[in-house]
Write a structure and sequence with these properties.
The chain has 359 residues and is of the alpha+beta class. It has one domain: L-amino peptidase D-ALA esterase/amidase. The protein contains eight helices and 14 strands. Strands 4-3-12-11-10-9 form a six-stranded mixed β-sheet. Strand 9 and strand 10 form a beta hairpin. It is globular. The protein starts with 28 loop residues before the first strand and ends with a helix. The mean pLDDT is 94.
Amino acid sequence: MGLVADLGVRIGVLPTGETNSVIDVPGVGLGHSTVVYDDVPPPFGRGVARTGVTVIDFGGDAWSHPVIAGVFVLNGAGELTARSQVDEWGLLETPVFLTSTMQVGRVYDAACRLLMAEQIRIGVDDVIIPAVGECDDSWLNDPRHMHVTDEHVAAALAAARVSAGATTPPDQGAVGAGTGMSVFDHKGGIGTSSRLLSDGHVVGVVLLTNFGSWERLRIDGVAVGRALGRPAHVEPPPAGSCLGIVVTDAPIDHSGCERLARRVGLGLARTGSVATHGSGEIFLAAALGLRAPRDSAPSGVPLTGRDLNEYFEAVVDASEEAVLASMLAAHDVTGREGRTIPALPVEAVRRILAEGRHL
C-alpha cells in the first residue's frame, strides 16, 4: 500500500507495513510542526517562512533507556548533532529532530528544555546532547529570520508521540521540516516507508529530501525526469541534502546499525542521487531490540553476518520508496521572492510508467 503503489509500482519484494511508514515499528512515532508565514510577526520582523520541525520518537525515555544507533556520512556538507557521541558510544539518548539549516540551534535548545522538563535527572546526573539534523530550505524560506520557536518543537514532539501505534499513515511531503525542501527540482520534503521482514521484525525509514536535478529522476528504473522535461519554474534550487533515519525493532548492535545506515545511500542512488559536492547525505540507523537502562550493558544476541542481508534489502527499498513518497505527497509551494517549486505531476508520471519509457 502507499503513494508509490498507487502509480502501479512496487519497490522491491518485501511487503510493507500497515501504514507503509516508520510508525509501523512498534513504539515509534513521527510528528510535524509546520511553520508558514508571509508576514512574520514581531519580534522577528518581516519575512517569509516555509519551514518547520519533524520529530522521530522511539517511545519511552531515551535518556534513561538509550537506543543502539550508528551513523554513516556519505557526503558531509550538512549537520546532525550528537553523531560523534553515537560514533563513540553507539548510543542515541534523544528523539531525532529535523529542521532547516539555520534553525538547528533553536531546535537544539528547545529539545534540551523539553527533555529536561520530562526527566529531572538530566543536568543533575549527566547532560544531554539532542540529535538535530538539517537540510537547507532557503530557496523558499527566509533564513535570516528565526521562525522556529520552542512551541513548534514541542508540538512536533507531542505529535510524534500521539502517532505511535496509529493505523493511518502520517503526513508526508511539504510538512514539518520538509515544508521548504525540493527534490529533483520538484517539491519534496518528508517521506517514509516500511518493510516487514521474514523474522517478524520491521524496518522503517524517514527521509528529509532536498537534492537532485530533474533530468536524473528515476522511478522503478524508468527515466521519468527526462520524460517529463524541465519543470515550469525558471531556475532550479541549488544542490541540497538528504537526512535519512532508519529505525527497526530488531536486536542489532552499533556496528550493524552503521551498516544499515550505509544502505540508505543505495536507495537514494536508485532514484537518481549522485551526492553532489554541496550536498549533505547523513544517515542514522537506530535499533530498539537491544535497548537497556542507562549505563547498563545491552542484553540479547545481536543479528550479524548473513542475518542482516534482508535488513539491508529492506533499508534500500524503503529508502527508495521514501524519496518518491516525499514527492508524491507534496503540493506546489510558493515562498521567498515569489519562487515556486511545483509538485510532481502525478498523472503524467503514471502515464510515463505505464508506457515504460526508458529514455
